[in-house]
Every structure is written in structure tokens, then in C-alpha cells.
């Protein structure tokens, strides 16, 4: 929804709430799309958000739950946590199993257990519990178990009739073909199904060279496959190649968004579930550990400066330009790190092509170092009237940007080899390296060429 329209609707909702015009408020909410309602809910204060959702759920529970699904499982669970398990079970029946499972997983543990216990007693409620048995961030957790599949011996006409009678399955993009033991043996596009004679057996028109994923595959790898092969849906199989579910492109889009958000957060040392309106105490608990680690590494960089204390005492101007060297190295490292982590996430960068990537980034680092170093040298010369100081600054920047590019390439790859998330830990190590090497190269060169510098006093 455009921001201007959102503001108008938001003002109308607040005004109708103040007036107590419940009927008009519900009518206004029912005219919105689920995605627009989710955006509207996110803009409302907590109390008003709860009121709006409750009124909508009483009149149109399906639309209300579709809006919660668009809002995200964490925020959706916050709107349901004060309801009884019976009420939540009734509401989650309006959602596909995968969306319901994601929402229930964010409920308080005691409430979540009660909801699952009630769901198990319902005919179709067991699907949610089965999905939650899969590990987080796997294909099994995000798939929909209600997948449309038919036996390989039926005809195209029979398949069309069965398809027309299906009501409780995920949106059908492809027709999956299974054998008598439910092994996935092929796939037929809907276009192909409609173009052949009605008496044609599916096994004659199905494609056997199909792409599927295991239920235990990481969701990020699933998203990569869907994007690489331009699929609208991808079947999920168990260890025996039996069809257990399907993942559609809308679920993949959510995965891509969540994974991208998580990587950006981790590059900054922030937990993936930290949000704008997360309680201050919780955000403090999540952010402080990484800041303490950075504090420890900052003292390491400071110890390097301490080694050259006498040099700084003789040339006070060195203290002015130290942050320039370290800061430029840190900025260059962040650029390299962003490109490399993205390359790893998309599968573009492997150990096989690391040498090519390393050579390219090192070349860019040296080039940036030369360009920025020359400019920095001229500025330092003009302000300090000391050409030697400018030259030392330039050489230090070239060295540090080369280190930044090299470290920004190799450290994420090494962390990945050690089964550590590159986005989570790379920035800490690289910041330390660029600070240490920046100070050491700048002050070390100053020590070597001390007799040529303009000394204080």
C-alpha cells in the first residue's frame, strides 16, 4: 500500500476507534488486502492493534489470519498469546499447515504445547505437529504437506477430473506423479496435461528428470534451487524419495527475505530477531555480547598504539591521522566482506574459485589504497607541511586496504569451513585486523622514517 493511502487508512482506523464506530471500522478493515492489513497492524500501537485484530477476527477470521500470516510469525504470535489454546486452534484452522506451524512455534512454550495437543485431536491438525518435528530452517519446516499427487497409471482425463475436485491442497503449479508406494517418479506441467488426449497415461507424458529437495535440506539451499531453475514450486521428499510436501514460490520469497535480513543483521553483530520495537532490555541482552567482544579487540588495537607511544610523543601529528588509516581499512573491509558473504550465500564462491576472487579483491584493495592514499597524502602534506608524513600515510593506507581485501575474502571462507556462519563472526575479526595493521603499518613506518618527519617541540 502506498504510504499516503496507508496514512489515510491509519487515521481513519484511529478515528473510528475513538468514536466507537465498530461496524464502520470492521467494514473498513475488510476492504483491505491481507498484506495491507499487516502493514496497517504494524503501524498501530499495541493496544489499538489488538483491538483491530480482535474485531476483524470476530467478523472475518480468515482475512484476519491471512493478515497475521503476512505480518510474520513473531508479531502474529504476540497478538495471539493472550488467547486460550482453544481460540488459537480455531483461528489457525484458517491458515495453511506451514504458516500455522511457524506461528505456533513462536507462542510461549506452555501455550504452544496446549495448542498442539488440541490440534492432534482434530482430523487435519496432525500436519502442524509433524512440521514442527523438523529442524528449524529446513525444507520440512516450511513445506505444505497437502500436496496434489496422482498415480502414474491414471490418464490425463482422470487427472483433470481429480484436479477439479481438489479443494484442500496448496496452489497447484505442477502435477506430481507417484508410484504405489508414494515414491516421487515424475512431474507433469498443467499445460502439457491439457494438450494431450484424455486417455493418455501420465507415465507417458511425465518428466522423470525433476528437481526435488530432501526434507532436511537447509531452507536457504531450497531458495537457491528455486531461484536458479525459475521454479514456481518444488517437491519435498524423505530419505526414501517418498513425496511428503511441496514448497511454493511465495514461501521461498519469505525465506530469501528472512535470510537476507539475518545476514545484514549478523554483519552488524545484531540478532536476527531484534526489531525496531523489541523491548529495550531484550535488545540490550542481544547486542551487548558482541559489543563486549569488540571492546576486547579495541583494546588489542590500542595496545599496538601503546608500543609506539614514544614515536607519537615526538610527532604529535601522527595521532591526527591514525583514525584515517584504520577507518579507511575498516570501510574497505566492509565492502569486500559484503560481496564475499553474498557470494557464499548464493553459492557463487567456493574453494575452487577462491584464488580468482582473492586476486580480484586484492587488486581492488591495492587500487583503492593507491587512489585514497595519494589524496590522503596531499591533504596531510597541505595541513601539516610535511611531505614525509603524507607519504607515510599513503603507504599505510595501501598496506591496510590490501590487508582488508585479503582478510575480507579469506576469513569468511575459513569460518564457513569451520561450520561458523561467515556473516556472524567475520566483522569482528576483520575489524580487529584492519585496526591492528592500520596502526602498526602507519606508526611502524613513522618509526622507520622518524628522522625525516617534523618533530614536536
Topology:
Elements: H1 3-19, H2 22-30, H3 34-43, H4 46-59, H5 61-71, H6 73-80, H7 85-92, H8 97-105, H9 109-120, H10 126-132, H11 139-142, E1 149-151, H12 156-164, E2 174-178, E3 184-189, H13 190-195, H14 202-205, E4 213-214, H15 219-228, E5 233-237, E6 243-248, H16 249-267, H17 280-307, H18 309-314, H19 317-345, H20 354-384, H21 387-417, H22 422-448
Description of the structure:
The chain is mainly α. It has 3 domains: 3-136, MgtE N-terminal domain-like (MgtE N-terminal fold); 149-247, Roll (CBS-domain), CATH 3.10.580.10; 280-452, Tetracycline Repressor, domain 2 (Orthogonal Bundle). Helix content is 68%, strand content 6%. It has helices at residues 3-19, 22-30, 34-43, 46-59, 61-71, 73-80, 85-92, 97-105, 109-120, 126-132, 139-142, 156-164, 190-195, 202-205, 219-228, 249-267, 280-307, 309-314, 317-345, 354-384, 387-417, 422-448; strands at 149-151, 174-178, 184-189, 213-214, 233-237, 243-248. The mean pLDDT is 85.
Could you write a compact summary of the structure shown?
The protein has 457 residues and is mainly alpha-helical. The protein has 22 helices and 6 strands.
CATH architecture of the largest domain: Orthogonal Bundle
Order of helices and strands: HHHHHHHHHHHEHEEHHEHEEHHHHHHH
Which CATH top level class of the largest domain fits? Mainly Alpha
- Tell me, rounded to a whole number, the average pLDDT: 85
Molecular shape? globular
Report on the biggest sheet.
Answer: 3 strands, mixed
Tally the structural domains. Answer: 3
Proportion of residues in extended strands: 5-15%
CATH topology heading of the largest domain:
Tetracycline Repressor, domain 2
Q: What percentage of residues falls in helices of 4 or more residues?
A: 55-70%
| N-to-C CA distance | 66 Å
How many DSSP helices?
22
Task: Kindly name the structural category.
Answer: mainly alpha
Strand order of the largest sheet: 1-2-3
CATH superfamily of the largest domain: SLC41 divalent cation transporters, integral membrane domain
Total strand segments: 6
Amino acid at each position: 500500500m502506498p504510504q499516503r493511502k496507508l496514512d489515510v487508512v491509519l487515521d481513519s482506523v484511529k478515528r473510528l476507534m475513538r468514536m466507537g464506530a465498530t461496524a464502520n471500522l470492521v467494514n473498513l478493515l475488510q476492504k483491505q488486502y491481507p498484506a495491507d492489513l499487516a502493514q496497517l497492524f504494524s503501524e498501530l500501537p499495541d493496544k489499538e492493534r489488538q483491538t483491530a485484530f480482535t474485531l476483524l477476527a470476530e467478523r472475518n477470521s480468515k482475512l484476519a489470519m491471512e493478515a497475521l500470516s503476512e505480518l510474520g510469525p513473531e508479531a502474529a504470535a504476540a497478538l495471539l498469546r493472550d488467547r486460550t489454546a482453544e481460540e488459537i486452534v480455531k483461528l489457525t484452522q484458517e491458515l495453511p499447515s506451514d504458516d500455522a506451524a511457524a506461528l505456533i512455534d513462536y507462542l510461549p512454550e506452555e501455550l504452544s504445547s496446549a495448542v498442539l495437543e488440541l490440534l492432534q485431536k482434530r482430523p487435519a491438525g496432525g500436519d502442524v505437529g509433524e512440521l514442527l518435528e523438523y529442524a528449524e530452517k529446513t525444507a520440512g519446516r516450511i513445506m505444505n504437506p497437502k500436496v496434489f499427487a496422482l498415480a502414474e497409471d491414471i490418464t490425463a482425463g482422470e487427472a483433470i477430473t481429480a484436479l477439479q475436485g481438489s479443494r484442500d491442497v496448496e496452489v497447484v503449479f505442477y502435477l506430481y506423479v507417484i508410484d504405489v508406494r508414494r515414491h516421487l517418479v515424475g512431474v507433469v506441467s498443467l499445460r502439457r496435461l491439457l494438450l494431450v488426449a484424455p486417455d493418455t497415461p501420465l507415465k507417458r507424458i511425465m518428466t522423470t528428470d525433476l528437481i526435488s529437495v530432501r526434507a532436511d535440506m537447509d531452507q536457504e539451499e531450497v531458495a537457491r534451487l528455486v531461484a536458479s531453475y525459475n521454479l514456481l514450486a518444488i517437491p519435498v521428499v524423505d530419505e526414501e524419495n517418498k513425496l511428503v510436501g511441496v514448497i511454493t514460490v511465495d514461501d521461498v520469497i519469505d525465506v530469501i527475505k528472512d535470510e537476507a535480513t539475518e545476514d545484514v543483521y549478523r554483519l552488524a553483530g545484531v540478532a536476527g530477531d531484534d526489531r525496531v520495537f523489541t523491548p529495550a532490555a531484550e535488545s540490550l541482552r542481544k547486542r551487548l555480547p558482541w559489543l563486549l567482544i569488540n571492546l576486547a579487540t579495541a583494546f588489542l588495537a590500542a595496545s599496538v598504539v601503546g608500543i609506539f607511544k614514544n614515536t607519537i610523543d615526538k610527532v604529535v601529528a601522527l595521532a591526527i591521522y591514525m583514525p584515517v588509516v584504520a577507518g579507511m581499512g575498516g570501510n574497505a573491509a566492509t565492502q569486500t566482506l559484503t560481496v564475499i558473504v553474498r557470494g557464499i550465500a548464493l553459492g557463487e564462491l567456493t574453494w575452487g574459485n577462491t584464488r580468482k576472487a582473492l586476486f580480484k579483491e586484492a587488486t581492488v584493495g591495492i587500487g583503492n589504497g593507491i587512489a585514497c592514499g595519494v589524496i590522503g597524502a596531499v591533504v596531510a602534506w597541505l595541513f601539516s607541511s610535511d611531505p614525509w608524513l603524507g607519504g607515510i600515510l599513503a603507504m599505510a593506507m595501501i598496506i591496510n586496504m590490501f590487508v582488508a581485501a585479503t582478510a575480507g575474502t579469506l576469513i569468511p571462507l575459513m569460518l564457513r569451513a569451520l561450520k561458523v556462519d561467515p556473516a556472524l563472526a567475520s566483522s569482528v575479526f576483520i575489524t580487529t585486523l584492519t585496526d591492528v595493521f592500520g596502526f602498526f603499518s602507519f606508526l611502524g613506518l613513522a618509526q622507520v622514517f622518524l628522522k625525516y618527519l617534523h618533530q614536536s617541540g
